[in-house]
Amino acid sequence: MRLERRQWSEQQAADEEVLRQRIDNHAGLCVGAFCPGTGEALASLFMKPVDLKDIRNASSWADCSAPSRGSAPAAPSRLFGISLTSVDPRAAASVFEFFWPYALKQGYREIYLGSPIPGLKRALADDPTLGVEDYVYSRREQWPRDAQLRYYYQKGFREIVAVLPNYFPHPQSLDYGVLLRGKVPLSRLGLLWKVMPFGLLQWVLGWIAGIDKKMPSRPAVRGGAGT
């Protein structure tokens, strides 16, 4: 809750009931990174399985993040990132590094998320003729112009699925949101990961990414009970 209140406004932040519901619904898809010295939460990621039709029909973050109606997909391959909150870029990176082997082991191939575009308000003030989608799709060299889209682009979320008005209360974004799709790294080799022992899978991914898991400065990461 302290992390939520530190990063989000009162209108944006989830309350205790909502956070508990997310964990109760999908404990294995809730991940946190914590300072190993103080135990302070530095990053959190909440996800849920999702059907493609639900993503296509969603018009707001509330639609995407709402508890799934009916039974969950029998063999889910897609996730929706309900919330990523971080006060430390290393902690956010640790959350993803920690979760990728679980995602591969469970057969997830894609992750969708909604991103604010905090540079939009200023960009339109500087150039009133600029369209919202023109801003979203614009590039500086090979990178998205908006800093938040650029951050997610570097994390592998490179496909823009939709640009949605009234997506989420965010004044700098004029309440617009961009629905992004990212592929779970190496998910095409799904059959291999399912039969590979989990410890070996973690080692392989760590070796591929060049991750030094013995670095003392790396935040400790904990997953939900399902992991």
| Spatial extent as radius of gyration | 18 Å
Q: State mean pLDDT (0 to 100 scale).
A: 84
Uncertain ranges: 211-221
Structural class: alpha+beta
Summarize the amount of helix as a percent range: 25-40%
Termini separation comes to 22 Å
Shape: globular
Please work out how many helical segments DSSP would assign: 10
**Estimated share of beta-strand residues:** 15-25%
The largest pleated sheet is described as:
7 strands, mixed
Number of strands: 9
The arrangement of helices and strands along the chain is HHEEHHEHEHHEEHEEHHE
Strand sequence of the main sheet, in spatial order?
7-8-4-3-2-1-9
Short précis:
The chain is 37% helix and 23% strand.
